[in-house]
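Need tokens for this chain, all 307 residues.
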Amino acid sequence: MPRYMAKSQVKSNLDLWLNDTFLREGMFLTVSTSETDVYGRDISRLSSTEDATFADNRVWQSAFKEWVHESGIVPLYSIAPPLIASGVTVNSVFYPHDTGAPGYTALFGHRIDYKNGRVIFNSPIAANSTVKAEFSYKEITVDSASIFENEQKEFYVETAYKDNPGQTGVITYPEKNSRTLPMVLIDITSRDNESYELGAPTSVAKFNCVLHLWARDEYARDSIEDILTSRERTVLKGIDFNTAPFPLVYMNDRNPAYTNYDTLAQTNSPHFWRRIYIDEISARRVQPYYNIERTQFELIIRVYPNF
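Here are the structure tokens for all 307 residues:
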């Protein structure tokens, strides 16, 4: 595994911090088993979907991607914390994800792909099965700009709770590689070194970062703009990803060794790296792409050598 250097450390910490920030701002929705939308459709129901990587009827897709996997989230407002999916219901019987949990059955053993909002069974199940899950999903997708290959990437807008012409009569299930809106893409465009102090051999790492916001409407764009611009002068406690466990592992399942961002980033944690200073944030509107609202945020980030 390649060693995580300063740039990759900053980028990875920004990803975790942004997800943590949006969740604490209440930017998530929770789906309960057999919950219906305004059209009376069961939005907890998963659909068998084709994926060339797996045999038929192993992959069952939710209508919502980006399931919450982070623990220890306490929202800033008086709302319940997000619900982390702990298993799946097949034909009205709940089967836990944890192999050591009561009720676990190898026949319905599975992994949960939190990133893509789907369940992957260890072996195919009957095609006519009724599969449901309860979970919270993120209203904002955070990803790396390098993952977003081009502006022609297919978008998927999650609007099961309100009118959407793309969801007439049936629930629309996203494909594995589609992008959900709104989304924030992280890109570190350059790095410079600044003098730390006169005569010192060390220097301060200065990063120029750009966050690309793509939103489906003005309200979502304005809300995210307010959240991000209010974070100027924030100091992040960085996690050292050369030693710390990653949140997601194989098939985007939860890593049981990962606790949460706050715990791993504390200065008394063995995985603490350095403080990451977000010194400046500026936002400017970008010309809409078809009907997608866009904003570009420019950040100046500094990392000092010894604190």
